[in-house]
């Protein structure tokens, strides 16, 4: 069996091959790891949008900042980012996580007030990935440990304790190589290729075969040989080594990709993982607020789920796409990200594309972007 150092090395190499991080966002999952050299990446959610440029600098468009871009001075190069409802998190190549924004529910990982410029999240060192959504966040250490901070509800810390310090270690997990988080549940990909889930299980998002009260970290039965995970709105997804995608939980937003939509078994809800039909050769997987995006080995994209703001990328805005749909206007994609109702794709020529809700939102309400366009910084 590979040791943890080898697993992290191969996980990072795979990420570099596709060129960007898996991103999660508010109100879904947001994850960040090192992008390929000279390739930009972006994170977005209710706080706004943050781009890690190819040179390791950062450009941000906080949604409360009247459309003005912010450029933050950082002590080291940025290699990743994650954004939730209140704050943005910047992963530095040194392994430190910087946080900026509001400190509602101690979302900055500490007590005290808001932060108008990035400051380190106390106690986090040697971090290789961050994930965030709504009012909470996760960090993955190089040694495979997982840390949580922010909102402390529905077992998001991995236990049923009433109170916690600002940042806590998630107990009950084996060595982990990737994390993902959604509104009220989280996922971890173990070194063993299995998926571990914890938090709310109201719609079967923990994949245990039933529904019920929040639960601590437990393996998802019957699922192995997984290479990536994503978490969405009461929904969980996994990408297996054979290029297939599996989903379970709520199908209210058609995130299971099975051609149906609704909140019952007859409408496609799944209490255990089921294979998403029509998807093969997948290499990267991300989830936004009610939708899913997959990068295939041939550099093309497939998307399904909620399309209220054009985030499916096919020229529409409204309704649902209950089955995987090709985004026709993009090819040679090497990395994808999603956050809130915004979507990003990096192409082999180094361009960063986006669609869905506009960037920036303020100072005026701009029209939704229904098909990919290049993000102008």
Task: Provide an overview of this structure.
- This protein has 377 residues and is mainly beta.
- The chain is 4% helix and 43% strand.
- The protein has a single domain (4-374), classed as Regulator of chromosome condensation 1/beta-lactamase-inhibitor protein II (Methylamine Dehydrogenase, Chain H).
- The chain contains one helix and 29 strands.
- The chain is globular.
- Residues 1-37 have low confidence and may be disordered.
Helix/strand-derived category reads mainly beta
Q: What count of helical segments does DSSP give?
A: 1
Query: Judging by the overall fold, what is the CATH architecture?
Result: 7 Propeller
- Write down the domain tally: 1
SSE arrangement, N to C: HEEEEEEEEEEEEEEEEEEEEEEEEEEEEE
CATH superfamily: Regulator of chromosome condensation 1/beta-lactamase-inhibitor protein II
SSE layout:
Blueprint: H1 4-18, E1 31-32, E2 41-45, E3 48-52, E4 58-62, E5 70-71, E6 78-83, E7 87-92, E8 97-101, E9 115-120, E10 127-133, E11 136-141, E12 146-150, E13 167-169, E14 176-181, E15 185-190, E16 195-201, E17 212-219, E18 226-232, E19 235-240, E20 245-249, E21 270-275, E22 282-287, E23 291-296, E24 301-306, E25 320-326, E26 333-339, E27 342-347, E28 352-356, E29 369-374
Antiparallel strand pairs: 1-10, 2-3, 3-4, 4-5, 6-7, 7-8, 8-9, 10-11, 11-12, 12-13, 14-15, 15-16, 16-17, 18-19, 19-20, 20-21, 22-23, 23-24, 24-25, 26-27, 27-28, 28-29
């Amino acid at each position: 069996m590979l040791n943890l150092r080898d697993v992290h090395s191969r996980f990072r190499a795979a990420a570099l091959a596709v060129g960007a991080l898996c991103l999660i966002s508010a109100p879904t999952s947001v994850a960040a790891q090192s992008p390929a050299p000279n390739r930009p990446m972006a994170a977005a959610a209710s706080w706004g949008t943050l781009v890690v440029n190819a040179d390791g600098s950062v450009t941000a468009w906080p949604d409360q900042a009247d459309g003005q871009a912010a450029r933050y001075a950082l002590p080291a190069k940025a290699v990743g980012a994650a954004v939730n409802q209140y704050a943005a998190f910047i992963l530095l190549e040194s392994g430190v996580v910087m946080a900026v924004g509001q400190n509602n529910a101690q979302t900055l990982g500490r007590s005290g007030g808001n932060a108008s410029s990035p400051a380190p999240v106390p106690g986090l060192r040697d971090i290789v990935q961050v994930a965030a959504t709504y009012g909470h966040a996760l960090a993955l250490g190089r040694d495979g440990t997982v840390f949580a901070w922010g909102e402390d509800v529905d077992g998001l810390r991995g236990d049923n304790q009433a109170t916690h310090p600002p940042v806590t270690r998630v107990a009950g997990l084996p060595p982990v190589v990737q994390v993902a988080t959604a509104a009220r549940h989280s996922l971890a990909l173990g070194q063993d290729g299995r998926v571990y889930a914890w938090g709310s299980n109201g719609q079967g998002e923990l994949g245990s075969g039933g529904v019920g009260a929040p639960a601590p970290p437990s393996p998802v039965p019957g699922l192995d040989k997984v290479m990536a995970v994503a978490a969405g709105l009461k929904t969980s997804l996994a990408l297996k080594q054979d290029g297939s995608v599996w989903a379970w939980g709520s199908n209210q937003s058609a995130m299971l990709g099975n051609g149906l939509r609704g909140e019952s078994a007859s409408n496609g809800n799944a209490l255990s993982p089921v294979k998403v039909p029509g998807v093969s050769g997948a290499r990267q997987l991300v989830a936004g607020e009610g939708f899913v995006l997959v990068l295939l080995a041939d550099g093309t994209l497939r998307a399904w789920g909620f399309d209220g703001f054009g985030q499916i990328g096919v020229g529409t805005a409204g309704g649902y796409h209950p089955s995987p749909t090709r985004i026709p206007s993009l090819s040679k994609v090497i990395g994808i990200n999603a956050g809130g109702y915004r979507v990003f794709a990096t192409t082999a020529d180094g361009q960063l594309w986006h669609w869905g809700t506009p960037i920036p939102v303020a100072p005026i309400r701009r029209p939704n972007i229904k098909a990919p366009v290049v993000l102008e910084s």
